[in-house]
Hints:
Elements: H1 3-35, H2 44-66
Amino acid sequence: MTTAQAIIALVLGILSILGILEMRIKGLVKHYLQELKPNGGSSMKDSINRLERRIDEIMVLLIKKDN
């Protein structure tokens, strides 16, 4: 194997590894972005919306109690 072939093989190996890492990162980002969209009950966004509604209800009850 010549030096040029070794360099080409090394570069291709590094590019392959980088390509695999890129695909894994894209998959993770896609998964986490889906958690930020409402989906009918089980996403993080749905949980946050439920908590916000409950806090609003508690605030209304506290305001009524003070009056």
